[in-house]
């Protein structure tokens, strides 16, 4: 089993370049809409996006992964409830940002999903999900959307990363940010299992912060 250090620089990247989404994506960054580049281009303190979950579906296997995810801080939506949602992004220094996603649930409840994105790890970007679990991400541009794709899962012990075998993971996570008519954008999340295909999907529409 291979071990990785959190300070490792992504292969092919320039260590003298300040880490940013633009530096990770490369020349195709300029293909993104202006509003997408503004949203991910500069640290802005605290930003809140308000919106609605407009589509959600989950297979039986996806529901099992939801329950297992509760052991590591519940990084997946509890259910398929449609309705109000909010995302709060807070810059916490060194290019890292704290993300809090709040979704309404049935029965008058709400779920808050918290994670931290930071420029570190083997791909240059990782998301810390809680309870020692982190997820290296690759960023790219696809059809004028900014896409984040997981490349595996690891347990974090300080600066040490211990990759989990693929059979212990729920599969590949794909997150996409797509511009709609101003001031709206669409956030889509798909969990794709290598054997059983898409097991969870969610789409939400948010408005840019004033």
Overview of the molecule:
This protein is mainly β and 210 residues long. It has one domain: Lipocalin. Helices cover 11% and strands 50% of the residues. The protein is built from three helices and 13 strands, in the order βααβαβββββββββββ. The protein is globular and about 40 Å long. Residues 1-16 have low confidence and may be disordered.
How would you concisely characterize the structure shown here?
This protein is mostly beta strands and 210 residues long.
From the spread of the alpha carbons, the general shape counts as globular
Mean pLDDT reading:
88
Strand proportion, as a percent range, falls in: over 45%
Q: Identify the strand order in the major beta sheet.
A: 2-3-4-5-6-7-8-11-12-13
Uncertain stretches of 5 or more adjacent residues: 1-16
Class computed from helices, strands and strand pairing: mainly beta
CATH superfamily: Calycin beta-barrel core domain
CATH topology: Lipocalin
Profile the largest sheet: 10 strands, antiparallel, barrel
- Domain count: 1
List the helices and strands and how they pair.
Layout: E1 4-5, H1 21-25, H2 34-41, E2 46-58, H3 60-69, E3 83-93, E4 96-105, E5 109-118, E6 126-130, E7 133-142, E8 145-150, E9 154-157, E10 160-163, E11 172-179, E12 184-193, E13 197-207
Antiparallel strand pairs: 1-10, 2-3, 2-13, 3-4, 4-5, 5-6, 6-7, 7-8, 7-9, 8-11, 9-10, 11-12, 12-13
């Amino acid at each position: 089993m291979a071990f990785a250090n959190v300070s490792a620089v992504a292969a092919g990247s320039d260590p003298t370049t300040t880490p940013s989404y633009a530096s990770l994506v490369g020349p195709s960054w300029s293909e993104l809409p202006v509003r997408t580049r503004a949203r991910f281009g500069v640290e802005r303190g605290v930003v809140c996006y308000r919106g609605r979950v407009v589509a959600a579906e989950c297979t039986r296997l996806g529901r099992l992964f939801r329950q297992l995810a509760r052991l590591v801080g519940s990084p997946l939506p509890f259910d398929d409830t449609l309705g109000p949602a909010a995302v709060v992004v807070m810059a916490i220094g060194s290019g890292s940002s704290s993300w809090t996603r709040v979704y309404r649930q049935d029965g008058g409840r709400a779920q808050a999903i918290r994670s931290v994105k930071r420029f570190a790890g083997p791909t240059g970007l990782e998301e810390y999900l809680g309870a020692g679990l982190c997820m290296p991400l690759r960023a790219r541009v696809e059809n004028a959307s900014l896409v984040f794709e997981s490349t595996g899962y690891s347990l974090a012990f300080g600066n040490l990363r211990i990759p989990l075998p693929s059979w212990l993971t729920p599969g590949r996570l794909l997150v996409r940010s797509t511009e709609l008519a101003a001031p709206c954008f669409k956030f889509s999340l798909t969990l794709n299992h290598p054997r059983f295909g898409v097991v969870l999907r969610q789409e939400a529409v948010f408005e840019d912060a004033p």
